TrEMBL record:
Binding locations of S-adenosyl-L-methionine: H18, H41, S102, E120, D145, G146, D166
Protein name as annotated: Ribosomal RNA large subunit methyltransferase J
Keyword annotations of the record: Methyltransferase, RNA-binding, rRNA processing, S-adenosyl-L-methionine, Transferase
GO molecular function, one term: 23S rRNA (adenine(2030)-N(6))-methyltransferase activity
Originating species: Rhizobium quercicola
InterPro entries in the cross-refs: RlmJ, SAM-dependent_MTases_sf
Function statement: Specifically methylates the adenine in position 2030 of 23S rRNA.
One biological process term in Gene Ontology: rRNA base methylation
Catalytic activity field: adenosine(2030) in 23S rRNA + S-adenosyl-L-methionine = N(6)-methyladenosine(2030) in 23S rRNA + S-adenosyl-L-homocysteine + H(+)
Length: 291
């Protein structure tokens, strides 16, 4: 396990993932009934962007740094509000030093009746995360393989909630693992909302991944993707994708406003693009190879 999220925290992929996560949690709060968020690959929860590791890559500068460099237009501001308000709460002096990872962002948005279960397998990162949530009775932090949690921890006893699956993609076969993990988790918790992260990079088997997801016959499945630069001449991350199962009914419309804005604000060359499509749902979009 070589992956450490501190080198990537606040990058363009985090911006899209965390903006959507904040919307999903906000939507769950529309009903009084308690919910649980299961975060299977949680990271350390809070990132110091002024620290040596984050400074070494500087990835956050092309992500949250650029997002906050100029005011957000009025049409987009309400969509980003829960995400940006959580960041502002962590940086009361202004500036951008403390960046929330997925468990911290979730926790900042939760109400007293809501619960968080977060898994982290890297021993050092688990220790850091555990310390961050020490004494917090609403959060349970476990040093456990997140893929196992998709079986053992579902359905949650609250019977409402969100599952975030955000693996590091450092081993081959992660797209397949994600698809198999979703199949298992959905069988156990068909009423839940699921948010899965995947990378876009040269040679990534994204079309096959989408096809395998469609074959699961899950009725409501939304996909959103943001590409910030061409993948020619690089094997690194050039874009980011999310699959959202059982999305709130407002999410597609929000993504249709948010994605063009993020594409313009975060683009690194003229090959930037963004899209939100139904992989399965009432308004099924054409398959990948039709456009
Ligand atoms: N979800 C976090 C966020 O948005 O702030 C970032 C998570 S990072 C992409 C992936 C994390 O998964 C790393 O911290 C890594 O140590 C951890 N990890 C890797 N394999 C794991 C596994 N099998 N189970 C749980 N955590 C794992």
């Amino acid at each position: 396990m070589n992956y450490r999220h501190i080198y990537h925290a606040g990058n363009f992929a985090d911006v899209l993932k965390h903006a959507v996560l904040a919307r999903l949690v906000t939507y769950l709060k529309q009903k009084d009934k308690a919910f649980r968020v299961l975060d299977t690959h949680a990271g350390i929860g809070l990132y110091d962007l002024s620290g040596e590791e984050a400074q070494r890559t500087g990835e956050w500068r092309d992500g949250i740094g650029r997002l906050l460099a100029d005011p957000v237009p009025p049409a987009v501001a309400p969509i980003l509000a829960p995400y940006l308000e959580a960041i502002a709460a962590l940086n009361p002096e202004g500036g951008m030093t403390h960046y929330p990872g997925s468990p911290k962002l979730t926790r900042l948005l939760m109400r007293p009746q809501d619960r968080l279960s977060a898994m982290e397998l890297h021993p050092d990162d688990y220790e850091t995360l555990h310390r961050l949530f020490d004494g917090d009775y609403q959060s349970r932090i476990t040093e456990l393989d997140g893929w196992l949690a998709l079986g053992a921890h579902l359905p949650p006893k609250e019977k409402r909630g969100l599952v975030l699956v955000d693996p590091p993609f450092e081993e081959p076969g992660e797209y397949e693992r994600l698809e198999k993990g979703l199949a298992k988790a959905y069988r156990r918790f068909p009423g839940g909302t699921f948010c899965l992260w995947y990378p876009l990079k040269q040679g990534a088997p994204v079309a096959e991944f989408h096809e395998s997801l469609v074959a699961l016959n899950i009725p409501k499945m939304l996909c959103c993707e943001l590409t910030v630069k061409s993948d020619r001449g690089t094997t690194g991350l050039t874009g980011t994708g999310l699959i959202i199962v059982n999305p709130p009914f407002t999410l597609k419309g929000e993504l249709d406003v948010l994605l063009p804005f993020l594409k313009d604000r975060l683009k690194q060359d003229r090959f930037a693009s963004a899209r939100a499509i139904w992989l399965r749902g009432e308004e099924r979009d054409p398959p990948d190879d039709a456009d």
